[in-house]
Records
---
Amino acid sequence: MRTTVQDVARAAGVSVSTVSRALTGGSVSPATREAVVAVAHRLGYQPNRAARGLITGRTGNLGLIVPDLRNPFFADVAKGVTARARAVDCGVFISDTDEDPVAELEAIATLRHNTDGILLCSPRAKDAELLAAADPQNTVLLHRRVPGLSSVVADIVDGTRQAVQHLRALGHRRIAYVSGPEDSWATRQRLAGLATFDGDDLEILPIGSVAPTFDGGVLAGDLVLAAPATAVLAYNDLVAMGLLHRLAARGAVVPDRLSVVGYDDVSLAGMSHPPLTSVSVPKDRAGAIGLDLLLGRAGSMTAAQGAEVILPTTLVVRASSGEPPA
Amino acid sequence: MRTTVQDVARAAGVSVSTVSRALTGGSVSPATREAVVAVAHRLGYQPNRAARGLITGRTGNLGLIVPDLRNPFFADVAKGVTARARAVDCGVFISDTDEDPVAELEAIATLRHNTDGILLCSPRAKDAELLAAADPQNTVLLHRRVPGLSSVVADIVDGTRQAVQHLRALGHRRIAYVSGPEDSWATRQRLAGLATFDGDDLEILPIGSVAPTFDGGVLAGDLVLAAPATAVLAYNDLVAMGLLHRLAARGAVVPDRLSVVGYDDVSLAGMSHPPLTSVSVPKDRAGAIGLDLLLGRAGSMTAAQGAEVILPTTLVVRASSGEPPA
DNA sequence: TTGAAAGCGCTAACAA
DNA sequence: TTGTTAGCGCTTTCAA
């Protein structure tokens, strides 16, 4: 049988309420507290969070819902959340929905009643579904914005702009864009960034939508080579990696024949051949900030107030981008 | 205020115990059950798992402890666990210890009292520490074996043998081995596999230990080139990727000059340049089996009985291995 | 400062 | 088959 407050109280010769107070910071005499703490430690007492939560109404846990842990982007976000959670002694329920909007909604339904709040990362469900399923008071969206819910996002529009400006500065005038899932928030943000450019001295060539995966990038490779572009901006790093792979197979040297720029700057970006120029978005920081928002630790802002945090993006230049062919 | 059994009972005109029975599969008349279920659904009732756990002694949750979610190997394991957990309606507490043995032990201490069991993946702590911290009754080790605790591991010795045999069949006679963290279980297993070969017509050249990361592989690249080997076996895929990167930078063509074989077959392995030959270990399956063991769903075996599951490994041949230079 | 007692939401005896 | 009741381990009134 595990140690309970009862055991500690008996061993310390005080009442259970005194034990409780001593351990949670109530008013107890220093001597009593010291004694109780010592006994609790000696007995290896670990409070039952469930029982505590039952009465306080706070479980000390929160839920993190991600589409796919295997995607390094989400792994990074999860890392940021768990790191911060450990620092504030908060448990994290993880739910990997496998990119399934239905599983996502179910996870929200289960977790919202068994946690103090939910961190919903890049949800695939529609705005209306999310609004219906989530409690605005204790839900924070990560990397997605839905009116009526708190969110922490990166400045994707600006990031996209930085990427294009970088390519333009290098001399590129025709830039292909490989798009991700149509109708997704992230896709629309990227297009918004692109829209500020087309015209001028620059031409953006839409290559179409592919799955936001390595295979999607491979698929896009041939399409890009067939287009009159000297550079290509990919939906994300995974797509860019697939692109790199296919271009190499087709004998197109990067960046001599074609410059490639990715998005997200996941850890893989530095491992590709050549290393990938990419728009860096603060992934783990977004997770940590989301958690603070949920727990009301983010200074004046809280999730309940409908906070909208926008984090800056920065372009990380590596070897996959260079001057266009002469 | 959220809906409780009380609310459902009142609305359905029955007692709380009837509601409880109707919802958890006790003996109730079909008509009553139907009515209760309907009301519960209408009211959006979600049982409070904490309260339930308080009385049943089972929380319906388990803990998953991994060294680093950013490592694709652990992401895969986590994926296997969460997928299976979702199927059996079990919550998963995740804890990323950041490769810190102390954090690991702390996580065990916290989780063992607030979950039905712990899945401990590739722990970094010592055998004795783990034995002291964990409850053998409801702890399952993943990819690590400690006498006295249940475990699910891959047949690393055999996997290593397959890799070497593959290289020998290609004609290699001098194979470099880049080792991982000294004194780790995984490292010892690999060395055991290697030990069955040295001598014969084959020479294994130990290159030394590096961090099990991309950077570790980059570091090892030069060492490998300086050795008289025609092939190199890396501690894991991340190291192999770093190796590939450094070899390319040094102008050594893979596999013409040197064959490279990785370990784990993480998703990146297929994305490298050239695609990496790697020993595939069943990562997500290990996670799923571990969960079943913990929950007593793995047929006759349970964690409590000290189960030791060994999963087969298979070599996946890709383009990074070929015949040795003439 | 301390203790007694109530009760969080739920399930599991025990009766009816 | 159903309802009543007693807790699970904890915190928090309320008195002392």
---
Amino acid sequence: MRDYKWLHEYCLNRFGSAAELEAHLPVPLTPAQLRKISDDRYLSTLSLRVFRAGLKHSVVDAKWPAFEQVFFGFDPEKVVLMGAEHLERLMQDTRIIRHLGKLKSVPRNAQMILDIEKEKGSFGALIADWPVTDIVGLWKYLSKHGHQLGGLSAPRFLRMVGKDTFVPSYDVVAALNAQKIVDKVPTSLRDLATVQGAFNQWHAESGRPMCQLSMMLAYTVNH
DNA sequence: AAGCACGCGCGTGGAATGAG
DNA sequence: CTCATTCCACGCGCGTGCTT
């Protein structure tokens, strides 16, 4: 495993200057900012991630205003009441993506959000408070309690809302392979813990958010 | 005008395997 | 034995671009 110094220098070389590098790195929201996001916006983004999976993002994004309409602005209290016949009816609506499994995931994930509201006050509180040094734990929590959130969907959702996380994308996994941290796509708890440990080390060395380390790592493999 | 294959980019479920 | 994990096959809707 290379140290942060190597990673930083590699990226400076690639971008030519510190300013150019910084311009290409994401900036996560603060816990306070994450708390301010309302639960209907969390459900909207969560659902957008679910429907994007496997499809061209531009296709789904273009239909999103219609999704907001048919799902009552993603108000969890309303969405959770949508029954089977209601969802079957949506299967006829060409303004949205007619995928029953994904449509069913919306009220199910609304239920998860309501459950968390009850326990923590808001979904945003859960997201804001989860420590970045165990972000794989949050991925697991979301895929276990939510629906259609396996694979990279949980980390990608978190990236979309601004929660600091790394994402084991194709490029990031290639970089982790190159540095002999793991030798395949990390899916087991053990491999995920190993990867989390590597990021925690770079994080401690540099003070950089995980999302920036993740992108810098991705830049170290050719594409 | 209608039909089809393709690529997109994943997630799911069940079976098989492994750990304790 | 149980429970967790991994493996594998399969499936998903849409838009594009081609053929009929």
